[in-house]
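Render this sequence as a predicted structure.
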Amino acid sequence: MRGAREPGIGVDSEDRRFIRRLQRREEAAFTELVERYQARIYALVLRMLGDPEEARDVAQEVFISVFRRVDGFRGDAQLSTWMYRVAVNHTKNRLKYLGRRARGRTQEVDAVPEGVLHTAQARVHGAPPRPDQEAEARQMLGIVQAALAKLDPDFRALVVLRDRDGLSYGEISEVTGQPVGTVKSRLHRARMALKAALEEQTK
């Protein structure tokens, strides 16, 4: 959510006008909403799920849910924060569903360096690397994604929001509804869990 205002500040006048258009069910406003957030929401969901097909389905569900629930949006948080919140909740529900079907694995563990996921992605998508560097970066990213898939959905969301999307603790607090202190302590535990999963992957 780059360029976002300070946490705790509600919707500005421009977004408020845009939300009113959404609440009036203006087709052009919903088209704009999808254009504005589709890439970010899909990327967030994909990083949590690790499955492009599942991510497309969940991203579509997010926008359908927003369409249905926009009348209840009070504007006490930024629109982008609300979109992230809806996306995270839908993705966690899908992860739990997949877990019940034994298509995903979770592992609750009580430290991975901050930014490890971001670093792996940057190595893939940054300046053009040498072929050996690119292969190494993609291998690293695959290892990280596999380790991430072993985390509890709540832990997975925290790692992705902080270490890949670069949200502040305050923004994550608004997205998850958890106090900042809780976010920090749970994120620490999530990184420990990720480290344990990475060590298991590389044995």
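Summary. The chain has a mean pLDDT of 78. The first helix runs from residue 13 to 23.
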